[in-house]
Amino acid sequence: MDYSGTVEKIKNSIALVLTVNPQGNITSKGSGFVYMKKGLLVTCNHVVANNDGLKIRLDDTAEFFDAKVAIRDEEHDLALLKYDENLAPTSIPLLKVDIKSIKEGVSVLFAGYPLSLFNLTTHQGILSGIITDATGVVTYLIDGTVNSGNSGCPLMDANGAVIGVVNAKRRERSDLLSKVEALQIGALSLHGIDLVELHQALISNVQLGMGYAVPCSYIPSYKDGAEPPKLNKSEQKVKQERKKK
After folding, report:
1. I need a surface site. Which of 189, 200, 215, 220 has the fewest CB within 10 A?
2. What separation in angstroms does the CA of 45 have from each of 48, 91, 136, 185, 186?
3. Which of 3.90.70.10, 3.30.505.50, 2.40.10.10, 2.60.120.10 would CATH assign to domain 99-172+205-222+231-244?
4. pLDDT of res. 181
5. Which residues of the chain does CATH 2.40.10.10 include?
6. Residue partners of 176: CB distance under 8 A and separation at least 6
7. Is the pLDDT of residue 127 over 60?
8. Using CA of residue 142, residue 144, residue 146, residue 152, what is the dihedral sign?
């Protein structure tokens, strides 16, 4: 299929999201998209979790400008960012898909800024599975090339309507990999090879055949002073068990 029309329609609504420390160094990189209304951006919480300054860009040829976190939902790894809508007048909110059309096997697109790329990249795949955990939380499985940097980008149908939010950090043995990623370069070595640096290089170059996304129904509704949705009893129990580990 030819998705060029869809890409043209949605490309100015998808953001490159950076966190930058006081020294001007990039400390995190991910993607996001305009949703619900102008001036509001959805991304993954882990992309903006380090509390450094936020810079976003909604056009590959435009300048970066400031944003700030409006809401964090750590349980679903989502965040809403606010920005001055006047700085990106051509960026319009992406529409939400008709939930009845979400089923296993449908074609999906996701567009973001993977790896070290600073240019929008679009991938095609299928919604290969819909899983529900013990707490009732739903996750979408994507048969498509999801890489680091894609976190926060929209999972869309063929027309560009939002199905969910891609999360590249969710993966097999993410608990172990996250511990390695938290180490500083030089902390581990084997035969003169820095294992932390090797891990970072592998993550930056590997192409994952299976990706994950959070359904768009988990995106918090926005209003000034809004808080993320409260956990139900099952989710609270799972959270407490995780803390004990």
Report:
1. 189
2. 6, 22, 21, 24, 28
3. 2.40.10.10
4. 56
5. 4-87, 99-172+205-222+231-244
6. none
7. yes
8. negative
Any residues with CB less than 8 A from the CB of 175 and at least 6 apart, and which?
Answer: none
Q: Are strands 78-82 and 26-34 parallel, antiparallel or unpaired?
A: unpaired
Is residue 135 predicted with pLDDT exceeding 60? yes
Domain 4-87 CATH class label: mainly beta
Whole-prediction pTM: 0.79
More confident residue, 184 or 245: 184
User: What kind and span of H or E run contains 202?
Assistant: helix 195-205
As a whole number of Å, the CA-based R_g of the chain is 18
What residues are annotated to the active site?
A: 46, 77, 151
Of all residues in the chain, what percent carry a pLDDT higher than 70?
A: 77
pLDDT for 72 equals 95
